[in-house]
Write a structure and sequence with these properties.
Elements (H helix, E strand, L loop, with lengths): L9 E5 L18 E5 H6 L1 H11 L5 E4 L22 H10 L3 H7 L12 H25 L3 H9 L13 E2 L10 H22 L3 E7 L1 H4 L2 H11 L6 E6 L9 H15 L4 E3 L4 H8 L6 E6 L20 E4 L4 E4 H10 L6 H7 L6 H4 L4 H4 L6 E8 L2 E8 L1 H20 L4 H19 L1 H15 L1
Parallel strand pairs: 1-2, 1-8, 2-3, 4-5, 5-6, 6-7, 7-8
Antiparallel strand pairs: 9-10, 11-12
Length: 455
């Protein structure tokens, strides 16, 4: 059983089955640990068990139990067409049991704090949620038709792992807002304390996930109360998720509140930010926030996320500009790179913009023309209110290139030597060069982050 909850500073969230190719092979060493959502485990346990043991080769991981999903309106866990519960959600309810089964399946309503008033129900609920995290993939591996093949590979000393146990387990948790804090925080603490006893008995690290709204983050009294309550648990790790918290859009005041929140929790246990960007990476790696021991993101996006899912909107081609630490729409990226001198030659592009493995393949003798590979789209026409409408969608190969680029740049952000003075200098210089080219909205975070890193 693993006893090191966090394998390194760089965590990546497994999104869909299509994400696999950006997490294995040449990318396998680019990150330290995987986060897998429980609904994905319920949806494809066999494929995930195979992925972890054969393709991801011993890569540490843990499962987010997503228990907060059952406190929101039922429509968020239903299919859009039929209105029935998603199949993966039904499987999670079967695994987690009461009070989800009665509330969601029988009464067709979300859970509320009063549903956790019975201590026996809470204890059994926590046991089942932790059991799901610990056993789902291991059980699948041991019962699958491939089990004998895995054992054979181990016997002949092939690089394969049949140990699919997570590095930690997460206590059941629910989302906290300023209006619901008083009611839900006690349920969270109850679940955390019960889970702590279970995890201690099993000898596995326990993480407590704290999911809050931005209005709580900005309420000093609420944060102080929250930290005081959670400090009584003594978990091995805190995982934090601030609803829709974009580091690029955040003000200096918001980022200061974020730092104080991490420092407060960090007095009890180290902290991992489940959705974070370069500002968090720099704060942690420079030891300005020594309490921060990990920052997670998704593939190309996922540096911030709303707790309640919203429509994804129309996909557009974007390019992660390394010096800006931000994904720009392709046309903005084109103007920015032109201003930075990146199109003067291929060597200028590698030096001023990016010299990652995919960029050195894409950018050749004609840099500006070559860069078009990151913005290729196809036109799709459909009818809206009787009128034809045409939209541009990125080609699959465009997305593949931009994701590969993003992953290589992220590896550099997490691993290259970091000097705070140099980071501040470069952020300010980039902001000043580009504000009149792509607009202040796209570069304002450079100046804000500089203040936070100086602070």
């Amino acid at each position: 059983m693993p006893n090191k909850p966090i394998a390194g500073f760089h965590l990546v969230r497994f999104g869909t089955a299509a994400d696999q190719k950006f997490l294995i092979g040449q990318f396998l060493s680019s990150y330290d640990q995987l986060i897998i959502n429980a609904n994905m485990v319920a949806h494809m346990p066999g494929a995930l068990a195979s992925f972890l043991s054969l393709k991801a080769k011993n890569k540490p991981y843990f499962i987010d139990p997503q228990t907060h999903a059952f406190q929101h309106d039922r429509s968020f866990i239903e299919t859009k067409k039929s209105g029935e519960l998603k199949r993966s959600i039904t499987k999670l309810i079967d695994a987690y049991g009461e009070p989800f089964a009665s509330c969601i399946l029988k009464n067709r309503r979300p859970v509320i704090p009063n549903d956790f008033s019975n201590q026996k129900i809470v204890k059994r609920f926590c046991e089942r949620v932790l059991k799901f995290q610990l056993e789902s993939l291991s059980k699948e591996m041991n019962q699958s038709d491939s089990a004998k093949y895995y054992k054979y590979l181990k016997k002949i000393k092939k690089d394969v792992s049949t140990d699919t146990a997570p590095s930690l387990v997460i206590a059941p948790y629910f989302y906290l807002t300023a209006n619901t804090l008083k009611s839900w925080v006690d349920v969270n603490l109850k679940c955390a304390n019960v889970s702590k006893n279970i995890a201690d008995d099993l000898g596995i690290p326990l993480a407590v996930q704290v999911v809050i709204s931005q209005d709580i983050l900005l309420d000093q009294d609420a944060v102080k109360q929250l930290i005081g309550k959670y400090s009584t648990i003594k978990p091995d790790l805190f995982l934090i998720w601030i609803d829709g918290f974009s580091e690029q859009q955040a003000s200096a005041y918001q980022l200061d509140a974020y730092k104080n929140f991490i420092r407060g929790l960090g007095k009890t246990a180290k902290v991992v930010n489940l959705f974070g960007g370069f500002c968090s990476i720099a704060l942690g790696r420079a030891k300005i926030l020594s309490e921060l021991v990990g920052v997670a993101h998704g593939l190309e996006y996922g540096e911030d996320r709303g707790v309640v899912p919203v429509g994804g909107g129309i996909p557009v081609a974007k390019f992660y500009l390394p010096c800006l630490h931000y994904r720009l729409r392709f046309r903005d990226a084109l103007r920015a790179i032109r201003t930075l001198g990146g199109f003067n030659s291929s060597q200028a592009f590698y030096r001023e913009i990016c010299g990652c493995k995919i960029c050195t393949k894409v950018i050749d003798a004609k840099p500006e023309e070559n860069f078009g590979a990151y913005g290729q789209t196809r036109s799709v026409t459909y009818t809206r209110k009787g009128d034809p409408v045409s939209m541009e969608y990125p080609l699959p190969e465009t997305k593949e290139k931009t994701v590969q680029h993003y992953m290589w740049v992220k590896k550099a952000e997490y691993n290259d030597p970091i000097n705070v003075k140099d980071v501040i200098k470069n952020l300010n210089a980039t902001g000043k060069k580009l504000e009149a080219v792509i607009g202040l909205d796209n570069v304002a975070h450079c100046f804000t982050w500089s203040k936070i890193l100086e602070g």
